[in-house]
Amino acid sequence: MGQKLVIVESPAKAKTIGKYLGKNYIVEASMGHVRDLPKSKLGVDIDNNYTPKYITIRGKGELIDKLRKAAKKAEKVYLATDPDREGEAISWHLANILKISEDDTCRIVFNEVTKTAVKASIKEARKIDLDLVDAQQARRVLDRLVGYEISPILWKNVKWGLSAGRVQSAALKLICDREKEINEFIPREYWSIDCVLRKEKKKFPIRLSAYKGKKIEIENEETSNSIIKELEGGSFIVKAIKKGKKSRNPLPPFTTSTLQQDANRKLNFMTKRTMSIAQGLYEGVEVKGHGTVGLITYMRTDSVRISEEAQGNAKEFIENTYGKEYLPSSPRIYKGKKNIQDAHEAIRPTYVEITPEVAKENLTAEQYKLYSLIWNRFIASQMASCELDTNSIDIINGDYKFKASGSVISFDGFMKIYEYSNEDDENSVLLPELEENEELNTETLQGTQHFTQPHPRYTEASFVKLMEEKGIGRPSTYVPTISTLLGRNYVVREKKNFIPTELGEIVNNIINEYFKQIADTDFTADMERKLDDVEEGKEEWTKIVAEFFDPLRIAIEKAEKEISKVVIEDKVSDVKCEKCGRMMVIKRGRYGEFLACPGYPECQNAKPIVEELDVPCPECGKAIVAKKSKKGKKFFGCVGYPECKFVSWHEPVKEKCPNCNSYMVLKYSKTKGNYIQCANSECNYKEEVKKDSTEDK
Length: 697
Hints:
The relative contact order is 0.10. The protein has a six-stranded antiparallel β-barrel with strand order 8-9-15-14-11-16. Strands 19-20-21-22 form a four-stranded antiparallel beta sheet, with no helix packed on it. It is of the alpha+beta class. Helix 5 (130-157) runs antiparallel to helix 18 (521-535) and helix 5 (130-157) packs parallel to helix 19. The longest helix is centred in the first third of the chain and has 28 residues, at 130-157. It is built from 20 helices and 30 strands. It has five domains: 4-128, Rossmann fold (3-Layer(aba) Sandwich), CATH 3.40.50.140; 143-184 and 460-562, Orthogonal Bundle (Topoisomerase I, domain 2), CATH 1.10.460; 189-249 and 386-451, Topoisomerase I, domain 3; 256-381, Topoisomerase I, domain 4 (Orthogonal Bundle); 572-694, no CATH class. Strand 4 and strand 5 form a beta hairpin.
């Protein structure tokens, strides 16, 4: 018998699978796509039923020759690209290149890179699913038509190199709409009245909630002071005490969206970084005592479903590790949201016995953090609920009612390994034992001014959540959509928040005026549902494309006639050009913003924008400037480099250490907030920072 050829997408996956299958199999990597639409032209025959014209991707010729030779020698070829639409399309292209018949059972898929799953997939080899291929083909053609038909209009009238995209345009509109909402928001003043009461030595806070049985709203300081005066003349009496029990259930295992959100909030990982790390964990890692294993299941999924086998393994692990009391009365089954593909399981560890601590020595720091997050979330999802003893107390003073609530964990359940907080936790306090009609002593009583706030700008985590809720894109498109918005300078990220640039606003206005459909979130979500219908064999992909493009063609013709040139003025800086004396302007290039002389081409002076700190270098006394490493990470160095080689990953501050007189640096802790610490590792003196000095940091 001859050898069998298995083609996967990446070398890491090829290495892992090769060890599972043994010497009767050769495993090669396609390195992703091998064919695509040409970059230099539209590549879609609009007049011939939207037929795509695929070409071999530049640079892939040698690899394809290698795969062809291997396929000719092989007794059987298996295509094991990723288990999604894009993976199915790559297999289809490979089958065309290698002249594999559509009737050949060459396609194998597995949700986890384990020996059992890989060997089982070969036994269950199937034909290439042409409905899946058509769904991906429809997406590719739609995106090409939007990009190549609308982008030239932006190049001509706004700026060369811009792009319009079907999903990115809807995403950009959401960010611009939120910014408009913030700018138009009119704050409204309101006041709260808070009191700290005391019973013996125990103190606890309460807040005014009602007056004569109705919710109270205090609009100004005058009203607040009047109420406080009344309260000072009365007594605080315990009116009612309600004690009870409350259960808190665990969250379901991760989907792509929830993993990206949690990794952003808890680990400070950007979505692109999260998916890159997850890809490595899925494809395989060498773990001492276990060999090369894929540590997690496929990481592009919108499903919270898990297999019975995985559920059984989790149950056994929980019982053996934490005890039977940590198991729920019946196995937990989670229901997914409407309009999901549900093609794969949720993201979970492939082997629960490979705990994060077992794998730690073989993982990078980032892999360990992400794997811990995935492992803990999955195990917690199969554990018993957390039980709380709750206290709710009504306290009256005349016609005014105050409320206080508290809770204490009586059984930790799933929170033994996975904690999460909610609004109730933040408002919960530890209350002393009280009795009805008991009078309490007043410690403090004060009114506080507040102003209503607009909805916050989107962070990467909240924006991924929004895209999922609105049905814009699918798990595989969240990262490229965000990357495009940032890469095209339509949006910038400031303190984790997305803010549209002037360029982004201009592009959004043009798209909304002339191509309203592609920026409409409902229309974009409906298109995703139609692509799902193509995948399920309910719709012809060319019909979907025609319904979309026919009205778009009319809009393109109108836009080409009506849109006039938009001039974007460069922002003038406060830096004078040392060569010609003009004030330099801020421009944006491939690697971000830089300073350039407006006298170009006569004067070609350009230099990077330097953020200078008002802090002397601890080694030579010159200024400290913020810089970026090759990987884009911010660090701080002396302006006198290379003569002075002082560098620090943390921002130096003016204050000197009171213990050893070394320089100090600014740091951040999730629990303590900002603090400063001595840079001398032998000292490590710490202190809280003054609020006014870090307010803008």
